[in-house]
Amino acid sequence: MSEPTTIFSIYEDKDHEIHQILTEVYAALKEKGYNPINQLVGYILSEDPTYITTYAGARSKIRKVDRDDLLAALLKQFLDA
Fold first, then answer.
1. Burial bucket for residue 27 (CB in 10 Å: 0-12, 13-18, 19+)
2. Taking phi first (over 0 means left), then psi (-120 to 50 degrees means alpha), and beta for anything else, what does residue 56 get?
3. What is residue 4's DSSP assignment?
4. Whole-model pTM over 0.85
5. Counting beta carbons within 10 angstroms of the beta carbon of residue 48, is it exposed (0 to 12), middle (13 to 18) or buried (19 or more)?
6. What would the pLDDT profile of 17-34 be if each residue is shown by its tens digit?
7. d(CA 6, CA 17)
């Protein structure tokens, strides 16, 4: 008997990576005393990296994520889609 084919989605992997990066950036902003939500919203709206601290490599991490992908992942999570 053959085993069923395993299906995986590159989008799920990307969303997981985005979630991990956002979690780490959020923690770094919080540790430095910033309001993480305000800082992340400022970054998303302006794409100005100075909204994100360099502490713990947070700025370089967030810049690895395309803003469109970031917004898509956030909306999917929020809307449970």
1. middle
2. left
3. P
4. no
5. exposed
6. 999 999 999 999 999 999
7. 21
